[in-house]
Backbone:
C-alpha cells in the first residue's frame, strides 16, 4: 500500500532524507523510528503529497505521489502530534467542515459520522465545543477528521506527543483496531516502547537514511529484547 524508491529531500545543502526505499503491505503497522531530526516528518510529508521529493518516487495505494496527488489524498489520512482544531466549534461542526473537503455531505456525511463515532467511541464530543473538551476527546476529533473518508492508509507522525496517559492508551489501541480492519498504518515515533506495542515491522531512520528494516520480532531479537538497543546497534554499524 506504500512504496518508496530512492526517496530524497534536500533543503539547499541540507539533506533531510536520502535514498529511502520502503514497502508497507496492506493490514500492516510499520513503525518508522528515529530521533528528532532523523527525517521522519519529511518522509511522511512526501508520502502525503505535502512536500515534493528532490529525487526518487513513491506510491500510496497504487498512485504516484508526484503525478496523482489527489488520488493519493483521497486514500490517506494524516495525524500530526499537537494538531489543533478550532476551539469554538463543536465536534460535529469540526467534522462537518472537514467532511466537506472530501465531498461528504448530507447522507454521506451522516454515514461517515456514524461510522467514526462508533469506531472512536466519541458520541460525547459531538455537541461539545472543542475548548470544553479533555485532551482525549480533542484527540478523538483530530483522528476522526483524518479518517472520515475511510482512508486505507493512515500516517501518524509523533501522534502521542502531548497526550495524557488515557489519551495515549486510546490512540495506541485505535492504531491496532484500524490495522485489524485491514488498513495500513505508517507510525512515526521516537518512542521505542510504542513501536514495540503496535508495530508489525520497523524501520530505523538515522540522519535521513534507513539503516535497518525488519519484522519487529527480528529487530527485538537483534536488540536482546529491546528496540532501543537494536536501534543503537544499527546506527553504530552504519556509522
Ligand atoms: N523546511 C526545511 N528547511 C530546512 N531544513 C529542514 C526543513 N524541514 C526539515 N529540515 C531539516 O531536515 C532534517 C529532518 O527533519 P524532520 O523534521 O523530517 O525530522 P524528524 O525525524 O521528523 O524530526 P522531528 O521529530 O524533530 O520533526 C532536520 O535536520 C531538519 O532540520
Residues:
Amino acid at each position: 500500500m506504500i512504496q518508496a524508491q530512492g526517496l530524497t529531500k534536500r533543503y539547499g545543502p541540507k539533506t533531510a532524507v536520502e535514498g529511502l526505499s520502503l514497502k508497507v503491505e496492506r493490514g500492516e503497522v510499520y513503525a518508522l523510528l528515529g530521533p528528532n531530526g532523523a527525517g521522519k516528518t519529511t518522509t511522511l510529508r512526501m508520502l502525503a503529497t505535502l512536500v515534493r521529493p528532490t529525487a526518487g518516487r513513491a506510491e500510496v495505494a497504487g498512485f504516484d505521489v508526484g503525478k496523482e496527488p489527489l488520488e493519493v489524498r483521497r486514500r490517506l489520512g494524516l495525524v500530526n502530534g499537537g494538531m489543533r482544531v478550532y476551539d469554538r466549534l463543536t465536534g460535529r461542526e469540526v467534522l462537518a467542515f472537514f467532511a466537506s473537503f472530501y465531498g461528504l455531505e448530507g447522507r454521506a456525511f451522516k454515514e461517515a459520522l456514524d461510522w467514526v463515532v462508533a469506531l472512536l467511541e466519541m458520541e460525547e464530543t459531538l455537541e461539545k465545543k472543542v475548548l470544553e473538551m479533555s485532551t482525549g476527546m480533542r484527540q478523538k476529533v483530530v483522528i476522526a477528521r483524518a479518517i472520515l473518508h475511510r482512508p486505507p492508509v493512515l500516517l501518524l507522525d509523533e501522534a502521542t506527543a502531548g497526550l495524557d496517559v488515557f489519551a495515549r492508551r486510546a490512540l495506541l489501541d485505535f492504531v491496532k483496531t484500524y490495522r485489524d480492519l485491514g488498513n495500513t498504518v505508517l507510525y512515526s515515533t521516537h518512542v521505542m516502547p510504542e513501536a514495540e506495542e503496535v508495530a508489525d515491522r520497523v524501520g530505523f531512520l538515522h540522519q535521513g537514511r534507513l539503516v535497518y528494516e525488519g519484522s519487529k520480532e527480528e529487530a527485538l531479537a537483534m536488540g536482546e529484547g529491546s528496540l532501543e538497543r537494536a536501534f543503537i546497534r544499527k546506527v553504530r554499524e552504519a556509522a
In short: The two ends are 31 Å apart (CA to CA). The chain is about 40% helix and 25% strand. Residues 165-180 form the longest helix (16 residues). The pocket of adenosine-5'-triphosphate is lined by residues 11, 14, 16, 34, 36-42, 158 (CB under 6 Å).
